[in-house]
Write a structure and sequence with these properties.
Strand content: 5-15%
Number of strands: 2
Distance between the termini: 30 Å
Number of helices: 8
Order of helices and strands: HHHHEEHHHH
Shape: globular
Structural class: mainly alpha
Helix content: 40-55%
């Protein structure tokens, strides 16, 4: 894997991997919507272009943030599954959602209603744990 890091700063290095327009959207859709196939991602509301989607999935595979498997009942179809490294981004995504609710609402009138986020804000740690456990139950083989 080619070194794609600009400097030795941990924050900048993380942003070199997940700081583009699409990477966290893909991971968010995996965690919250259980998107797993190329088709799931390409047909999502965000309308990511297929060439960009391919590029981001490849990069996430290279950094072992996701892994690729074959569907058990259709060996020709690939599914993408978050690794522990990818699941470790769950708190970041939830914090971004909470930040967006508190700071962008006045500029973005169609954000989800605040009431839908109240339970997340009231017990963020439990919500994050529940998301991670549910993801593992749905996607990780035992």
């Amino acid at each position: 894997m080619q070194n794609q890091f600009r400097c030795s700063c941990p924050c900048t290095s993380a942003l070199d991997i997940v700081g583009d327009k699409w990477t966290l959207v893909i991971i968010k859709d995996m965690i919250l919507l259980n998107n797993r196939t190329f088709k799931d991602f390409s047909e999502s509301d965000e309308a990511i272009a297929t060439n960009i989607l391919s590029s981001r999935l490849k990069m996430l595979l290279e950094y072992e943030i996701i892994r690729k498997e074959k569907l058990p009942d259709n060996k020709q179809k690939n599914i993408y599954i978050l690794t522990q490294k990818g699941l470790n981004l769950t708190p970041v995504i939830i914090d971004l959602i909470i930040w967006s609710d508190g700071n962008l609402r006045e500029n973005h009138s169609t954000l989800l209603p605040t009431a839908q986020l109240d339970s997340v804000k009231n017990d963020k740690e439990s919500f994050i744990s529940m998301l991670i456990e549910n993801y593992k139950k749905r996607n990780w083989k035992r």
